[in-house]
Amino acid sequence: MLIVMHHSAQQREIEQVRAAVQAMGLRAEPIPGSERTAIGVLGNQGYVEDSTIRNLPGVREVIHVSKPYKLVSRDFHPESTLVTVGSVVIGAGKPTVVMAGPCSVESEEQMMASAAEVKQAGAHILRGGAFKPRTGPHSFQGLGVEGLKLLRQAGDAVNMPVVTEVMRIGQIDDVCRYADMLQIGARNMQNFDLLKEVGKLDHPVLLKRGMSATIEEFLAAAEYILAEGNQRLVLCERGIRTFERATRNTLDLSVVPLVRQLSHLPIIVDPSHATGVRSLVPVMSKAALVAGAHGLMIEVHHDPERALCDGAQSLDGPAFAQLMTELQGLQNFLSSTSVTMGM
Ligand code: PEP
Ligand code: MN
Predict the structure, then answer these.
(1) CB 126 within 8 A of CB 158
(2) Does residue 238 line the site of ligand 1, with CB under 6 A?
(3) According to the model, what pLDDT value does residue 291 have?
(4) Could you tell which of 114, 143, 183 is best to mutate to test the pocket of ligand 1, judged by most ligand atoms within 8 Å of the CB?
C-alpha cells in the first residue's frame, strides 16, 4: 500500500500517519518527493483495511497494491482450478459445459419435458429454480422444496447433475439434499453470511456476478467462499446494470478474459439473463465461447410462451438444439486454430 500525502502536508501529519501504520503492526517508509511525500507500507500479508489511514489529516490518496482477494487470485495459485459436478468437469482445457433448463421449476410435466429436450441436445447440467428471487412479491416465487424434488427427479430421469439457487442460509440443507451444485444468484452476491455458509460445504457452488458489482467486488465475494474452505467454485457473468434498457442487462464479456487472467477459478456466461432477449441468446453464447468462457448457463423451456418466469429470454427445445450444434462446430473450430484466447 502506498499513502500519498497532500503537497501541503506538514511533517507532524506525516509522523501521525507513520504512527498509525505502525500501530497496525506494519512498517511505514516515507518517500519524500519534490512535490509531496508518499509513505510506503511494508510487511502486510495481503490487503490492508485503509479506513483509519484515509481519514487522517494530510492524506490525499491511498493506493492499494494488494487486492482484497488472495485465495481467488492466480498470483498465489497459478494452476487453473477444475470443478467437478457429478461427472462433469468445468474449467480450463475441458470442453465447454452447458447448464440448461427452465428459469423455474413449474410442474412435473414441464420439468420432465425440458430435461428431456436439453439432454437430447447435449447439455451437461440441468438447471431449474425452486426458490426464486423475483423483483415483486406478486410474481411466481417458485415451488420451494417441492420444486427441488421435481428438479432432482428430472435430473435422475435423464442422468444429469442439477444446479439450483439457494437464497438464504435456512434453505442450504434442502438444496444440498436434492441438488449437485448450489447457485448464489446475482441479488445475493454480497450476502456475506450466505457466502460464508456455502463456503463451509463440500458441494460445488456457482456464484453469479451482482448486477452492479465491479470485478473486484465479484472476486472479493468469491474470496468469502474460498476462505471458509470450499474450493469448488465456478463464477458466472450474467450481465450488469447500465443505462441501456433495450436489453435486460449489459453482457460484460471482457470480464471473461480478465477473470481468467486474475483468477484460477472457472468462469461461465449466462447470456439469457444478460440479454433478456431470446433472439440474442445464441449469438452471445457463441461470443462467450470466443471470449474464453468455460461454460454457459442457458434458459430453455419446452413452451416459452407459457413460462411462469423469463419466457421472453428462454429458448425452446429446437432452438436450443440448433444452438448446441453450432456451439459444437465453433468449439471444434476454436480447438483447431492457433488464434490465441488469453490464459
Ligand atoms: C437465475 O439464474 O435463475 C437467476 C435468477 O439469475 P440471476 O441471479 O443472474 O438474476
Ligand atoms: Mn430466469
Answers:
(1) yes
(2) yes
(3) 97
(4) 183
